Structure formats: structure tokens, C-alpha cells
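Dear H.,

Thanks for agreeing to be a second pair of eyes. The structure we're designing against is below in C-alpha cell form, covering all 355 positions.
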């Protein structure tokens, strides 16, 4: 009858098998026979050789096609095979595993990058909304309450208050507390000022008390040590004051004390500190004053008191001790010195100045 045949050039087959896939440019195709001998390969030097690594890794002969892995030298490849039993060929397509994993990893990393970026943006957006609508109004409210608590009453600003429930609550709290808290703060400051004044002044006479006077003396000692500014102390006592209380009562005695304070204040300078040391004893701190000047001031006070008519026509006199602070002395030393001079004035007959 005749024979019908089709011929194909082996070069054409090799060329067809050598075509590259753009997605996997390192992939290549080759053909083995049923004994593992290379029949077709894009590397002509391998034709006719035994491809041990691939052949021994192939699935059993009854499996006509599928995937398998094999290692050649240092390259781990993933391959797909097809058995063409009519030709006795095994067509294999191999590609390095790293080239398959690379685009997968790129895709995974790109996806992760997009997810992370989206998460950061979402986190920032949530944080911004929370900050703008909740945190900032609360911080603003806290700041305003602190300002009010410290007595700084300022017009309320709605700049930081959002137009939502949080802003409404913050504004209501601020309106509710501002006036009451401000008034309470003013009252507290007034009471604190009063307490501070009471802690420094004598309750009966209104002049400096012993504690305040000691602080002034310590300040003058410090000024002397720094700048060598001289200062003097007066310590004086009302002569026979017990007789005033015994004969006329303590109310008259208090009137005499207050009258004495007013009289001495009219004589001394405004820069001098006048204080009640205790009972009928008084102390005077004269800054930038030398002993001769201080003695003159003391004589002036002594004379003014002697000539003054107090409550119920009473006349009193003073015994005054005067001391100038000396370099290297301590607070207690000058107090002892001026006290000694005051009692010396009493021993010498009272109504006198001992310097």
C-alpha cells in the first residue's frame, strides 16, 4: 500500500526544547533515555553521558509524569518529567529551587511590606483620632484645672475641644469647676497669707515676733560676712512692768505695750526691724549702723519713752542694752552680749542705755 512518514531535524527538536521561559530564565529542558543517558541537551558536551543525579531521583517507571527533586553539584533543582514510552524518552524540565523561591519570597515580602505600611498608617490614623478627640481634650482640661487651682483664671478656649461627646463633657466640667475652684483657691491663698503673717508677727502688738526677728538677725549676719556691713542690736525691757499689771490689770498693761510699740515706731527708721522678744522685752535690729550711731538712737528712744504719758497717765522707763556685731561671732553670742548689757543697765539704776 505504501508508507507515510514525517521527518524532523534533531536540531529543530533541540531548538524547541532550548526555548527559555521568561518567568524562569534559568530553567532548561533535556531528554534522557530509559537508561539515563542524555539524548538531547542544550549543552552538547553532556549528550551521551549518564545523568546519574536526575535519573536516580526519578519516580518509578510505572509513573508516567510528575515532579521530583534532585541535587547536582551544589544546586538543588526542582524538575517536571514526562515519559514518552513510544520513543523511549524521558523529557525533563529542571529549574534551580532558589529561582522558584525568589519570586515567591519577593511576593511575600512585598505583601508584608504593604501590610506593615497599611498597619502603620492605620495605627497613626487611630492614634491621631484618639489624640485629637480624646487625649488632647483631657490634657487641655487638666491644664485648665491646674491653672484655676493656682489662681490663674483665664477665658475658656474651645480650640482644643472637639465637637463630640468628649468635648461636651470637658467643657461642662470646666464650666462647672472654674468659678468654684477659683474662689476656693482665692480663699486658700488668703488664708495662707494670713497664716504666714501670723507666723511672723506678734499677736498683741502686730510687730515682728521672736522667730521673725531671729531670721532678720541671721540675714544681717550673712550680709556682714559677705559685704562687711555693720549692724547693731537693741534689747530693752520696761522697768517695773510687773507693778503695772499688778496695780492696774493686764488690760492696761497691754495698752501700755501697744502704746510703747507705736511710740518706738515713730522714732526708729523704716529700715530697722522692731520685734517683741517676749513679755515686756523688745528687740531692735539696726542694719548698716555702727555702735556710736546706735547709742544715739537708743538714747533718743529712752528719752521719748520717759517723757510720754501712757494709758491712765502712767509713766514708764526703759533699760536698753546695745551691741554691735563683731566679726566671727554667732547669733547666740550677740544675743547673750546684748542681754548682758540690758541687765547691766538695770543694775546701774534703770532708765538708761548701756552700750
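And this is the sequence the design step returned. I haven't edited it by hand at all.
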Amino acid at each position: 500500500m505504501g508508507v507515510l512518514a514525517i521527518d524532523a531535524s534533531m536540531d529543530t527538536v533541540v531548538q524547541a526544547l532550548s526555548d527559555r521561559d521568561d518567568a524562569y530564565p534559568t530553567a532548561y529542558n533535556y531528554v534522557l533515555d530509559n537508561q539515563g543517558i542524555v539524548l538531547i541537551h542544550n549543552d552538547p558536551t553532556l549528550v551521551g553521558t549518564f545523568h546519574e543525579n536526575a535519573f536516580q531521583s526519578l519516580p518509578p517507571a510505572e509513573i508516567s509524569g510528575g515532579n521530583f527533586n534532585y541535587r547536582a553539584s551544589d544546586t538543588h533543582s526542582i524538575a517536571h518529567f514526562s515519559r514518552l514510552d513510544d520513543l523511549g524518552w524521558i523529557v525533563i524540565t529542571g529549574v534551580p529551587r532558589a529561582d522558584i523561591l525568589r519570586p515567591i519570597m519577593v511576593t511575600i515580602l512585598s505583601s508584608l511590606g504593604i501590610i506593615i505600611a497599611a498597619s502603620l498608617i492605620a495605627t497613626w490614623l487611630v492614634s491621631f483620632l484618639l489624640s485629637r478627640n480624646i487625649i488632647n481634650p483631657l490634657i487641655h482640661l487638666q491644664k485648665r484645672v491646674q491653672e484655676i487651682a493656682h489662681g490663674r483664671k483665664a477665658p475658656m478656649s474651645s480650640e482644643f475641644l472637639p465637637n463630640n461627646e468628649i468635648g461636651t463633657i470637658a467643657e461642662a466640667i470646666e464650666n462647672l469647676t472654674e468659678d468654684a475652684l477659683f474662689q476656693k483657691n482665692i480663699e486658700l491663698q488668703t488664708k495662707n497669707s494670713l497664716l504666714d503673717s501670723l507666723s511672723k508677727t506678734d499677736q498683741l502688738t502686730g510687730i515682728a515676733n521672736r522667730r521673725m526677728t531671729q531670721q532678720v538677725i541671721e540675714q544681717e549676719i550673712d550680709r556682714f560676712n559677705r559685704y562687711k556691713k555693720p549692724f547693731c542690736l537693741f534689747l530693752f525691757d520696761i522697768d517695773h512692768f510687773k507693778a503695772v499689771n499688778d496695780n492696774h490689770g493686764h488690760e492696761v498693761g497691754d495698752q501700755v505695750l501697744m502704746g510703747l510699740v507705736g511710740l518706738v515706731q515713730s522714732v526708729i527708721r523704716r529700715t530697722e526691724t522692731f520685734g517683741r522678744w517676749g513679755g515686756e522685752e523688745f528687740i531692735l535690729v539696726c542694719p548698716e549702723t555702727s555702735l556710736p550711731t546706735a547709742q544715739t538712737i537708743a538714747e533718743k528712744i529712752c528719752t521719748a519713752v520717759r517723757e510720754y504719758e501712757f494709758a491712765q497717765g502712767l509713766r514708764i522707763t526703759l533699760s536698753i542694752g546695745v551691741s554691735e556685731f563683731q566679726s566671727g561671732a554667732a547669733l547666740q553670742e550677740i544675743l547673750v552680749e546684748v542681754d548682758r548689757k540690758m541687765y547691766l543697765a538695770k543694775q546701774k539704776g534703770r532708765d538708761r542705755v548701756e552700750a
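Two observations from my side: Residues 97-149 form the longest helix (53 residues). The mean pLDDT is 85.

Warmly,
E.
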